[in-house]
Amino acid sequence: xxxxxENIPVIxxxxxxxxxxxxxxxYDADRxxxxxxxxxxxxxxxxxxxxxxxxxxxxxxxxxxxxxxxAEKGTMEHARAKVDAGFAFMKKLGVKYFCFHDVDLVPEADxxxxxxxxxxxxxxYILEKMKGTDIRCLWGTANMFSNPRFMNGAGSSNSAxxxxxxxxxxxxxxxxxxxxxxxxxxxxxxxxGYETLLNTDVKFEQENIARLMHLAVDYGRxxxxxxxxxxxxxxxxxxxxxxxxDAATAIGFLRQYxxxxxxxxxxxxxxxxxxxxxxxxxxxxxxxxGMLGSIDANQGDMLLGWDTDEFPFNVYDxxxxxxxxxxxxxxxxxxxxxxxxxxxxxxxxxxxxxxxxGMDTFALGLLKAAALIEDGRLDKFVEERYASYKTGVGxxxxxxxxxxxxxxxYAEKLGAPALPGSGRQExxxxxxxxxxxx
Length: 438
Ligand code: XUL
Ligand code: CO
Prior knowledge:
Helix 11 (315-327) links the parallel strand 11 (292-296) and strand 12. An 8-stranded parallel beta barrel has the order 3-4-5-6-8-10-11-12, surrounded by 4 helices. Helix 5 (112-130) packs parallel to helix 6 (160-179), helix 10 (279-288) runs parallel beside helix 11 (315-327) and helix 11 (315-327) crosses helix 12 (348-375). It is an alpha/beta fold. The protein is 46% helix and 10% strand. The chain is built from 16 helices and 12 strands. D-xylulose binds at residues 101, 141, 186, 188, 232, 234, 268, 296, 307, 338.
């Protein structure tokens, strides 16, 4: 049988002037930026589901791409062919990590015992493939949203039996993550939410989701999982209301249920924008709470109100993302391309073009974010903007050495404060443009 992607070369770095579609223009793995190699700043990961499984099906039409990789779909031979294709793909691009859902790896059987047997078999095969390479698992997860049994959620299901099946899948997915040396374990609350309050006990459901997470932490730690658990917030889709709306909501939930020591955030760009935030906002909220763990690297479409999972090409957003990541001192996780080719981009070359685009976009973002920090004008402006808290009454407020009555007396004596100083937004935006394009 022919080698996967045999007509595609190993992707070289050729620099910004290159017109070669199968070369990196900005991602230069060994280049040192802000004291570290680009490849260390940017632990990229391949998403098994989009890259090796999704073939362009949408609500209005069937597959456009051929992801059979020379085997009959729905067989273990196909599962192995996907492993072969995935490793060939990652090697050619220099992608060092992969992320998976349990059911991305094997066809799901009717009986969970048989599914688990298949997962044992394929994970042995993946382990074999990993030997002699520096390719590693970034994170694993359980798909608890596709099977009809999860129509009302997994941890949040009204059915205790369904809860048990969710538990069984989480247990197995944790086993696989540990077996493959995964850095993290993700909970994306696929259907953990509701459609109508007329049939839903929100408090009961949220308590049960927390119970499932506690059970997962206890089990994970008992089998030697030392990595981070992640919540991946998303406000809607598939459910109308999803409980993990955004980073702030998810962090509050984790604290309420005593899960905040074991969990961090896996922030996805397109999920943040669906929540009405910028990508940077959810990164900042995670970072200031010490919970910026990992990133699902993609982007949405300003004109579409759903999760389009496009490959990131917006350099402004990538720059502001990397600005947050650099300021936070890096990620414990990595940058998982939870992104898919557009339906009409159905060839093997398109799969490579997509990753080259995504990796180059984040490399550019890294370079520009490092330059913004080095430039220092943004930091200096923010620092000075809060200068009134450095001395006098401001310093007393910060140190907590005052009372409401004292502050009220101060205000009365003042009569009226001066305006708080210009925000200078347009000036700051022109600094960003200057650094990006100057
Ligand atoms: C769905 C999504 C998932 C998670 C993993 O919007 O982002 O693919 O990343 O379950
Ligand atoms: Co995602």
